[in-house]
Amino acid sequence: MTFVSILSVFVLACFVGYYVVWSVTPALHTPLMAVTNAISSVIIVGALVAAAAAGSPGSKWLGLAAVTLASVNIFGGFAVTARMLAMYKKRERPGAAK
Amino acid sequence: MHEVAPNPYVSLAYLVAGVCFILSLRGLSSPESSRRGNRLGMVGMAIAVITTLVTHVPVQTLGIVLTGPGGVVAAGPLFARIDLMAVAEILAAIGLGAAIGLTVARRIAMTAMPQLVAAFHSLVGLAAVLVGVAAYLNPAAFGIADTVVPMIGQPFAVIHPASKVEMGLGVAIGAITFSGSVIAFLKLNGTMGGKPILLPGRHVINLGVLAAILLLVAQFAHGQEGWPFWTLTLLSFAIGFLLIVPIGGADMPVVVSMLNSYSGWAAAAMGFTLGNTAMIVTGALVGSSGAILSYIMCRAMNRSFVSVIAGGFGAADAGPGGAAAIDRPWKRGSAEDAAFLLKQAEQVVIVPGYGMAVAQAQHSLREMADKLKEEGVRVKYAIHPVAGRMPGHMNVLLAEAQVPYDDVFELEDINSEFAQTDVAFVIGANDVTNPAAKTDKTSPIYGMPVLDVERARTVLFVKRSMGGVGYAGVDNEVFYRDNTTMLLADAKKMVEEIVKAL
Question: For an engineered disulfide with B266, which of A29, B128, B159, B291 has Cβ 3.0 to 4.6 Å away?
Fold first, then answer.
């Protein structure tokens, strides 16, 4: 991809991010941070590239270390978000239960 | 070597992953759709990881050497096969990370969520640095270099200058995210005091270091040497510490949001290096998310972003008139009085603050609310944006105590209702109820949006003692009003006693 096409994706994604994040309800701002944390670990893609490549042992081990760190974040981030979201319950409607 | 013309299906897969991440955040617009959103995020991540694993299978190139009478006749690569050892190493790394991550996620207390998020940010930052350094050491693998074959000597790789800028910035942001998050973690965890540590001339030092980092990125992009890269990496680690150390505990919600934003920009910079859509989209999403949350937190404290970053708020200076005002008359009540008032009420609004979470009173509080509802009292919760230690923290703590989320209201939605409220029950909050923010221009919190609890017919204010002041170090006018009854005790004990009296 050329630099300009990558930049276009980036700029448009910033606008998408702006509108999507403003629509998040304030009650879910903590889960929002946890989940953005998990997805920013998509940096694992770069780590996997480094870990899989031959040619530089140093690069490979750094890649493996980064894969481990990013995995902690991915699994931990999504799991803790799921744990939080599971706690949000609606009020039981009076009469509905009886 | 990296594939020259990327497979269009691979690019499409990363695009799908990026769309999944957008929809994942979109899901958080309401609690009902949020769980589906989180699952979509996992799907997106799985797509991105599997695509990368499949397109970057580690291979071993087996050589063939033909020998004749005169020694080596010909040598060359014959065929490549999957390097199973390397595959196993990668899967082991993922497995190790998963085990640690899942264990932490299961065990962490909800009150410790801000520390956990700060710790997670530091990992993203460090991973970004490691990936950047790995790309520098093996640029061919990332497809960011041309191999130059000189007339004499070994062929060598020359990294594209644009890729060097992206790499340099990615590593710098990653390193700042890492060291800044470590400090934020230590402060939130109480390992390090919340008081800001102020170095003399810190603004000059910080700006100087930031300028130096940018100059080094430029030097790195133009030159062939490696030293600007290593120097800028070290300086970025240092500036992360220097930037966060002077910021006080009260401003940590802003800092955590800001570091959230940085971790996104670091991922985006690496996405530019790799030309990867999923990383760029994610980086932009996370970057804007953190920036918006920082803005919301700043607005809720009526502080400018620059003044938060400059640090120093919450230093040991006592609020104006703080000591003198303690002598004013105030009314003390017992749990029985409180129970009586609450039972008579038509509508009760509970205003929880971080003090409630520290005392672990949220479960007893919900019990109290249930008892009151049985008596036919309408119970609502009013949440100030900075009530917890991070954006939305109080909502999570109440959700954990099984408070239904449709009983919980944000400041703008409930503030007009205090006038029709019989009892405002303030527990563990202080500054966010202080009317001085509306009237006293000399107050350090002047202009901050506050909950108008004093408009309620009666205010019950649960507080440990009269002496302590809030984070901002200012006295609260509400304590001395005629319609206020102070309930001085540990928050949890007091609520338990009220439950007993009901």
Answer: B128
